[in-house]
Amino acid sequence: MTTRPRLPRTVWVLGLVSLFMDLSSEIVHALLPLFVTVTLGASVTVLGAIDGIAEATASFAKLAAGRLSDRNRRRKPWIVLGYGVAALTKPLFALATSPATVLGARLIDRTAKGIRGAPRDAMVADETPPEIRGAAYGLRQSLDTVGAFLAPLAAVALMWLLAEDIRAVFWIAVVPGLLSFLLAWLALHEPARHTGAAARPPLFGGFREVTAASRQLILIAFVFTLARFSESFLILKGHQAGLSLAAAPLVLVLFNLAYLALSYPAGTLSDRRSPAAILLAGIGLLVAGNLVLATTASLAGLAMGVALWGAHMALTQGLFARLIADTAPEALRATTFGLFHFITGIATLLASVGAGWLWDNHGASAAFFGSAVVAVLAALLLLASPGRRSVPHG
Question: CA–CA separation, 314 vs 140, rounded Å?
Fold first, then answer.
């Protein structure tokens, strides 16, 4: 019996870096929807626009950083830059006095995320044998989600300790962001094969060379992401269901608990079974979660719907990354990840603005029903895909 290789040190480091940054970012994110709509008095449409525009901005950064990472054969400088800029943006949220200020902070923060995203995902593939690639992406996603799980708990505790002073909580969130940057800077090592003096590919030509299989997967991801509006709407749904201002972030605790519990098992399973089949199951969980949230006003129904949302994330996010890594040649890995993140970022903008408009004009149920319909379309597109029966390497 062949012994499976161990997960590389780089994957663990990247996971821990993600954990600290997610802890920082998600403390802010857990309170931002209510900060924008209650403290600053903006509408849900404005909240959706802030989330969507910020994510779309990040997608442009991912497109550029991914291509540049492949072109100069470096991953670490882009990763460190992305985490460093993100750490520097955290004080801006504490200083915000208007939705426009929040938007500016979110734009810079998400741009930083864009800079690091594609090179980081490409580095995981660079360092990991194909036969354990699903486990590698599952592990990194799990560690990232540990931070996202702890963040709303920290937000609730800090809100209680600080008498619901949201700005003071935002200041405390600066600390794990700085730890994330320092860990990336000091502990992350550039793969040796990236330091060779190979000829540099053209800056823009690589996008035309993205494989047909990758393009097909990116199209499916675009349609799917149209159904994947911001988790901010889950927090608003929790507040609508009766949770207090301080307790509303608990919605994200449940969301991330389901996400955390299933991310690594889903990634590991994709090394043994068809990744596309697991992805299809994840889309089905999103449909189910939306239908529950659209038809319930109780806390029990809220808990079920939010748990299904978290489970769907576990069965889709790492799986998309793993499939992109499988379909992209090594010389175009970061480029392909950049294109993937760019396209899905545009979809996130459309999804969040659309969900905000539906919420304001037709109620919360319309937003969740709309998401369910689009998710079904993504499932049909995946079923029609010639590569849906693809099997893992190894």
Answer: 12
